[in-house]
Amino acid sequence: MKEARKNGSKQKKWIRKRHSVIRAVAGALMKPVLKHKYHIKIDKFAEKPQRQYLILFNHQTPADQFFVSLSLKKPVYYVASEDIFSNGWISKLLRFAAAPVPIKKFTGDARAVLTCVKIAAEGGTIAMAPEGNRTYGGRTGYIMRSVVPFVRKLKLPVLLYRIEGGYGAEPRWSSDVRKGSMHSYVFRVIEPEEYEQLSNDELYAVIKEGLFVDEGRADGLYRSGKRAEYIERAAYVCPFCGLSVFESKKNCVTCTKCGRTVEYGEDKRLSGKGFDFPFEFYGEWYDYQNSFVTGLDAGAYTTEPMFRDKADLYRVNLYKNKEKIAGDVEIALFSDRIELSGEGAGPGTIPFEEVSAAAVLGRNKLNIYHGKNTFQIRGGKRFNALKYVNMYYKYRLDNNKTGEEYGQFLGL
To answer: What predicted TM-score, i.e. pTM, was given to this entire model?
Structure first.
């Protein structure tokens, strides 16, 4: 028996009794706080006793996992970005309380899949946001096709869970929660007997349709005196002068190149101050930005950088902690690489050829997966991490390294 344990055949269970107790206590404490903060209506799901599910939800706010949990009675085990598992004692506490499943963004992570299989075998309910990212423009983002084999592997009933109003209440680029309204609920249940009869393409279409929410429109009022603040975390292309840097203040954002100022309204509409702005909503601007980047002449930015920033550089020791390598590092973004300079600036040059993935974490942290290292770049409050991810995936598209599955995929 001792030998079997030494060889790993005796594995600890993922699901613990304490998870149910902690979920009940946390739910009772969090519900009034979330309702007050987000003005959200959370519909209860009529669970069947002793039944487990795979929950797929669209991703709009930092609190989405709480909305999902409050719709069910039993604990839910979330597939979550590995970033939250590299924060020392905080990560240990999270593992103890809720046991989420770590996954590396935009990389094949067989370990995460096997963990989910284990949880399903133990009778647990699993949840994940197949977008892998919070929406930037209000529309449900790209859903990877790998969600289909994942569904088939687990063989669980699938709950398609919709969150609505979150983009209006708290856009990803914002640090402010606006006064509006939200709604979260189970949109549809897909039984295994049903999806077994569907082709992979048909199942993928059903999942996409069920999770699709488009809030790039005037569907309510979201009041705040800081409606445009920090939109430069997401916007870096001006429709009048191309690649640019923006500065926001309260309800307005200004292009530093051409000086044009745009106001962000309570109904999410955009309007130019003294000129006609070509986009009614930020989602349209975001789509234009992606198209602009996709069509960009990358060869024009191999000797001179597109952008320069200053930020702190960390090495992420996955599932342990983050080690600060250098502060106030100068970062230059080229079409085929990132260059770092300054005292202790880590690798110096990070060629995109050697990068396996890049991801925006939270509002504006940047993770670069370079060989065996994971580097995290943290700029100031107005740092735009999105442009680095977009340019990396633009490089992959230009060099046929992304694959047909992604189409015009720019990392989100």
So the answer is: 0.91
